[in-house]
Known about the structure:
By secondary structure, the protein is α/β, with parallel strands linked by helices. Helices cover about 20% and strands about 30% of the residues.
Amino acid sequence: MRFRKRWRELPRSVDRVVTSVGRRETPQNRVDRKNLTQISVELDDLAARARHRKLKLDEMQGGTFSISNLGGIGGTGFSPIVNWPEVAILGVSRGRIQPEWHEGKFRPRLMMPLSLSHDHRLVDGADAARFMARLEDALEQPLLLAFEV
């Protein structure tokens, strides 16, 4: 995703971890320079520390992109709200098997509703659409993510 002005990269990403005392945001630094395995290992560590109330203040601040998952609750979609100073948030809903018309007949297909909200002052709508298309490709062929650097 390309940002207008001086935002040319995704320096921090945020995961919201639900703990016994509520939700905690756990930013990760320089996710645009990490592979999926590195992000996963770091996220597991941050989530564990968040659940045990061991995060430092600076580890809960400074995110630019969030992912909000309502899949466990259900529903067919939602409109996540961007929290300043973040520039975008991806909403993930519960996946369901739905019929898809393909080559003259219906076939079952797992469909997962995604919603991207972004600040149009910082993120061009066409770039956001390309991001969503790339995300769709990655979700449809997850093995390809393992080979990306």
